[in-house]
Specification:
The protein contains 13 helices and 2 strands; from the N terminus they run αααααααααααββαα. Helix 6 runs parallel beside helix 9, helix 9 packs antiparallel against helix 10 and helix 9 runs parallel beside helix 11. The radius of gyration is 36 Å and the shape is flat. The termini are far apart.
């Protein structure tokens, strides 16, 4: 007989299961009473529950870090090599514009007051633009950290926030011991992590591009302080920075679903739809196409109606050019959107460019034609049905199989004309 002091895990030596067995029996030897782990040991059930909680905490931490990260891809300081190239170009561009303004003012010095005013404005705005170029990376990093801290406080700070409620429900929820509920909430967290990674990629790339564009946009101020291009650039950048706060729309419903893991998963599905909306409306130029690609991937790989409804709520149908009175909305293609903003920037530099007329892309035009054909067919069917109903309500069908007109007898006599007069009858031909 084997020695009772021997560890039951000795038979599993040199196998992968030995480590797991040793964790459940850290003191060696079998259970003292033939059941349960020894004192100080951890049972399989307790270990599984701890692993699930740790996995959920890990996923929540990653989701928070991806949706609103502390560090972005954009340069933190103006001495970054990437930003230095754009900074050099922007500063020299501002100096060139200022030099041109000085030359023009010198050649037209006979317009004393207007030219002096223009020269003063150009000088002041050039200095302000050059100073602002070096401060943009630091300001963006400070704003990004503030947004990240605010997002963490709003979603994972106390017992009333979404992620804290999920962690509490995993331990004390009504269905915390239900394996199916745990599987649902873990699956919802994994899906939310995938969408959060997509938000991180598009948002970080957009912030990097707009920070590097800052010197070129600010250089347009040297001409005289035209803020049109700067306002457009700032709106795009701030939209990217504050996009994560769209998830605050689900905060009022957190306490309503607290205590149930399944309802927490429903809130996470709503958060997935909101993250897709963040990409559609918050990421300029490429946001609608990236979100539509994500919707296509989900629809091709799943037939579950809830998943399809979630992605359709997050990414609605749209066309890629102009608004129509009905049907899906339209958005500009990445090239057209960038071209329009480029026209605004060139206008700030004083370069006028004629706006090119737009048209639907080929896939959108095909989709529009199919939709219009379907609408016309449905409308024709509806009109024909209404006509048949009107004919049947007007009277019984005549001998020819057609419904008789109102006031017409079945014998085929014409109804009297309004006013009681009959139309004149043509004369009959006489026989010779």
């Amino acid at each position: 007989m084997p020695d009772p002091k021997d560890s039951p895990c000795d038979a599993l030596k040199d196998t992968p299961a030995y480590e797991y067995c040793a964790q459940d029996n850290p003191d060696g030897g079998g259970p003292p009473d033939g059941g349960g782990p020894p004192d100080g040991g951890v049972g399989i059930t307790d270990g599984a529950a701890d692993n699930v909680t740790e996995l959920a905490e890990y996923l929540i931490k990653k989701i928070t870090g991806l949706v609103a990260p502390d560090d972005a891809w954009a340069p933190e300081k103006a001495d970054s090599w990437v930003y230095q190239q754009f900074l050099w170009l922007g500063q020299h561009l501002a100096i060139v514009i200022f030099t041109c303004v000085v030359v023009v003012c010198a050649l037209t010095a006979w317009k004393s007051a207007p030219r002096l005013k223009q020269l003063g404005a150009s000088t002041g705005w050039t200095l302000a633009a050059v100073a602002a170029m070096g401060a943009i990376p630091g300001a963006v990093m400070m704003l990004n950290k503030a947004v990240s801290s605010a997002f963490t406080v709003a979603f994972n700070s106390d017992e009333k926030t979404l992620f804290t409620v999920i962690q509490d429900d995993l331990e004390h929820g009504a269905d915390s011991g239900n394996p199916l509920a745990i599987l649902i909430i873990i699956s919802a967290l994994v899906v939310a992590l995938a969408f959060a990674a997509l938000v991180f990629m598009t948002r970080s790339l957009g912030i990097l591009v707009f920070v590097c564009m800052a010197p070129l946009v600010l250089a347009s101020l040297a001409r005289g302080g035209d803020m049109t291009a700067v306002k457009t650039w700032a709106m795009r950048l701030l939209g990217l920075m504050f996009a994560p706060f769209a998830l605050l729309l689900i905060s009022p419903f957190v306490q309503m679903v607290a205590g149930s893991l399944v309802m927490d998963a429903v809130l996470l599905v709503a958060a997935d739809a909101l993250m897709l909306r963040m990409i559609v409306h918050g990421v300029p130029y490429i946001g609608p196409r990236v979100a539509r690609a994500a919707r296509t991937v989900v629809e091709r790989n799943t037939s579950h109606p809830v998943a399809r409804a979630a992605v359709r709520a997050g990414v609605p149908d749209f066309y890629e050019k102009e608004n129509t009175p009905r049907g899906p909305r339209t958005v500009d293609t990445p090239g057209r959107a960038a071209s329009q903003d480029g026209g605004v920037l060139l206008a700030a530099y004083g370069v006028k460019r004629s706006e090119r007329p737009g048209r639907l892309t080929t896939p959108s035009a095909v989709d529009s034609a199919r939709r219009d054909a379907t609408d016309r067919a449905a409308r024709s069917v509806q009109i024909n049905q209404v006509r048949r109903q009107a004919r049947s309500a007007a009277g019984q069908p005549s001998a020819t199989g057609r419904p008789a007109a109102p006031g017409t007898a079945a014998s085929g006599t014409r109804p009297p004309r309004p006013g009681g007069t009959q139309p004149p009858q043509p004369p009959r031909p006489r026989n010779p």
